[in-house]
Amino acid sequence: MVILAAFAAAGAGCARRAANVDETANTNTDTVTESQFANITDANVALAEGNRLLDENQTEQAIGALKQAVKLNPDLPEPHFKLGIAYALLELQYTQSGTIDPDNPDARVKSRSQKAFEKAVQTYKKWIAAHGNDDAAHFNLARTYYKLDKIDEAEKEFKQAVKLKPDDADYQTELGGLLVKLAEYHDAITALKKAVELDPANERAANLLEDAEAGQKRLDYISPKNDSNKTASNRSSNSNANVGVDPESNSNSAPKTPPPANTIKSKKGDPEAKPKPRKDEAVDKRPRLANRPK
């Protein structure tokens, strides 16, 4: 019994130590990844490393590199934006596994991705104030607004990016995609045709263009029906409005009351007018006799 109790105690101690190790690993994930990039002293180098790791789907490692870039240059907008993307990918994993982000206990109030995107908006706006013609900054600010579900602001910035660099297929594609979502098909078709013209291998732009053209056809099909109904309604209302109105008059006043029949003057060519006898024409008013010889 003593021996069994000793083994049980030892097992419990190992389990507690393992649990403590796992908890420490979960709560110190960011600290561990950040320390791996502490030797990088250039923000742009750290940003490039973070982008590389994101492309290789090493999300947690990418977060460490991007946080190092933010630490070295907090006014650089792109690391904040890319951090938002990395956090969003990580949060998707937590959602799919049914777990809570251990590094953000108030995730239900505001996620780390939302915080990063909001910070990106601030830094991009500050950057654009100093570098107004930076088309990439306007483009990424538009993407950031879109991530925050601020569609009107996103549309404005996409259009500005396209204005500054109209020959960029990605800019035209993203603008066209947003306009399709807004059902602004006519403008979407213009942007997406330009994107396909610039990059014939752009399958996304080609697919979006098909959607935009289909949407425009639906609108064109519905509009004539509405226009015909509207025209018929207008004609009916105009007909009713013109009842009793003098067609030769420009006023909408009530019609004049016609004069008595005996005062109507005969007009030339009026079949109802009785001709007046001429002066040289005698009128025989004597009664005719039935047997009177002619």
Report the sheet-strand fraction. under 5%
Annotated CATH homologous superfamily of the domain at 131-230: Tetratricopeptide repeat domain
Q: Outline, from the CA principal axes?
A: globular
Give the structural class.
mainly alpha
Counting copies of identical and different chains, the oligomeric state is single chain
CATH topology of the domain at 131-230: Serine Threonine Protein Phosphatase 5, Tetratricopeptide repeat
Counting DSSP E segments of at least 2 residues, the number of strands comes to: 0
Give the C-level CATH assignment of the domain at 131-230.
Mainly Alpha
Strand/helix succession:
HHHHHHHHHHH
Q: Which consecutive residue ranges, at least 5 long each, have pLDDT under 50?
A: 14-28, 230-273, 279-287
CA distance, first residue to last residue: 166 Å
The overall pLDDT average reads 77
Major pleated sheet: none
Radius of gyration, taken over Cα atoms and rounded to an integer in Å: 43 Å
The CATH architecture term of the domain at 131-230 is Alpha Horseshoe
The number of helices is 11
Give the proportion of residues in helices.
Answer: 55-70%
